[in-house]
Amino acid sequence: MIKKHFLIILCLLTSVVISSSRAYAQPWQWCNGLEVNVYGQILDNYTAVGPPVMTHGSYDGCHMQGGVCDKYTFNQGAVWGPDATLTFKNKTTGKLVKVEIQQNFCFLEAGDITVTPLQGKWVYQTHTGSYHNYDGTVHLRSVTDE
């Protein structure tokens, strides 16, 4: 019983410390965020189909460049890292491509990032974030819908 209470108090204190210190840092300097950058070949040939579908965490928005979203930003939830599915439609053929991007929960260190192609052949890179420096990042370089 004492062990259970100790763990609850420890979790609450950690939560308070992380939350209070976040107010003094730049928003991109935390490991609980995830940025997904979309590059030329995808932007030129595909259109996003709606906003990302979230399994866990939150979709914070996108950076618009030339009328299209070229950077999606996500944040973790209370106990899960961000987990989102992005869907794009080929402007010529109408075929869909999908990719799921998931980052493990951040607790003192950034979580591992998993990219799972659901439809299409994706070329991508991942960069694990750092608790003190930056969010995790996924670079979606190209895709084919074959």
Description:
With 146 residues, the protein is an alpha+beta fold. Helices cover 18% and strands 47% of the residues. It is built from 2 helices and 10 strands, in the order αβαβββββββββ. The strands form 2 sheets. It has a 5-stranded mixed beta sheet. Strands 2, 3, 6, 7 and 8 form a 5-stranded antiparallel beta sheet that branches. A hairpin with an 8-residue loop joins strand 9 and strand 10. About 14% of the residues have low confidence.
- Report the strand count: 10
Write the element-wise H/E pattern from the N-terminal end onward. Answer: HEHEEEEEEEEE
The tally of helices reads 2
* Major sheet size, sense and barrel closure: 5 strands, mixed
Helix content: 10-25%
Q: How is the largest sheet built, in terms of strand order?
A: 4-5-1-10-9
% residues in beta strands = over 45%
* Radius of gyration, whole Å: 17 Å
The first-to-last residue Cα distance is 57 Å
Which of globular, elongated, flat, extended, rod-shaped describes the shape? elongated
SS content category: alpha+beta
* Spans of at least 5 consecutive residues with low confidence: 10-29
The overall pLDDT, averaged over residues, is 82
